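Structure, all two chains, one model.
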Amino acid sequence: MTNSTSTVYIHVIEDVISKVREEFVNNGGPGESVLSELQGLWEMKMMQAGVICGPIERSSVSKPTPGGPTSTTPVHDLNVPYEGTEEYETPTADMLFPPTPLQTPIQTPLPGTVDNSLYNIPTGPNDYPAVHDSGGTTEMKAGRPSPYMQPPSPWMNQRPPLSVDVNVAYVEGRDEVDRGTSHQPLTQDFFTMSSGKRKREDFASKYHTGGYIPQQDGAGDATSEILQVEINQGDNSLRRNDIVTTAKREMSAQVVRSSMKIPQLDGPIPDPYDDVLSTPNIYNYQGVVNEDYNIVNTPAPSDLQAATPAVGTQNDVGDDDDDEPPLNENDDDDLDDVDQGEELNTQHLVLAQFDKVTRTKSRWKCTLKDGIMHINNKDILFNKATGEFEF
Amino acid sequence: MATFELYRRSTIGMCLTETLDEMVQSGTLSPELAIQVLVQFDKSMTEALETQVKSKVSIKGHLHTYRFCDNVWTFILQDAIFKNEENQENVGRVKIVACDSKLLTQ
């Protein structure tokens, strides 16, 4: 990245934003706030890609200090999980490969003054990294490891700290599209929290003291009698349990009777938890009781896993159809490549216009102009380029 | 003014596309408007490259693959060397995609 590249990019962003403003503000457009959201997200992604030097001058105004108030961003935070439901399913190929380019009917560059007003609108996402960290830790420390909470999608995480709690509450709607990569840590944390080798008594006390843990296992449906019956069944059908575990089950049954809220009565939670992820055979040696438990609990891990949406989406698509899926899967793969693997980093690419390309035997010469190069993680622009290649 | 969609594959273009993508998916933005933004980006990027960039680059390398299709040249170079005024970059494998500049002036 060179400063000049950054300068040109920033210029382009501002140019685009100012020239589409007319469309956003008039004719029933979504309005100025959406335009500044667009700009904020765009610039944030550019900074994350490392191709513009942040902070941009305007971001001194718009960049909230950690913990500082941000007025605009929470709005679309809340909207994302809910409004995205339907579009989520449809591929956005039309975005990436737009059908026929529409010519912008009206171009009204609004120089100077409008730009200034734009600068005053906070574009919260600019301070992504700090936010992400604090958000993650506070969430964990809050001691509310609800498996129903899907870890926020990356760009949900990119919100200022104040909005984190709000996000957590609403992320429950698990519709939003994630890029997946960034919440691996969160997911891991959930697993480790719940996968420690605890006895169920620990869990019981934990649930009581915590008091905030939501019903993860549907135990609320079961009356103590049912639980007891299940436990007995479990004892009968135990294949690999020894006396100790049986005793534990009875103990847990007593605990359950004493307070019906106790969700975990059926043996070591952590093990099935891990096993569910790896081996489907868990039911064989966990017995009926555990089976019941697992059935109820599987949503938790699967939800967490859903945090890597690419996988889930592909699976869904693959299961549903016979003919179409290959196409869709390919689309997904392409998107994945763009998002993760190649992501502007690993692939060296030159985009340009050619004036002339000639060949003499195996020697090729070409003159290019107006190019964007992405080489060795740097974006380099050129006005003219000459190439000499040997075939 | 004709434009290329070529530059949408650049970093800045991909960032914009992703942004628009998210906003359309969240319902914040209509697809039509998103496309208008992309078209405007095509124009603004082309214009900026013409008017604001002055640097020159020389490229050398082994031409692994060439292709000319639909007025677009594609070269894949191996062991390429990029030189500009400031520095030099060596790349093991690079793809060059170039549209016909004359198409813009027509």
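Chain A has four domains: 3-126, 196-296, 309-341, 349-390.
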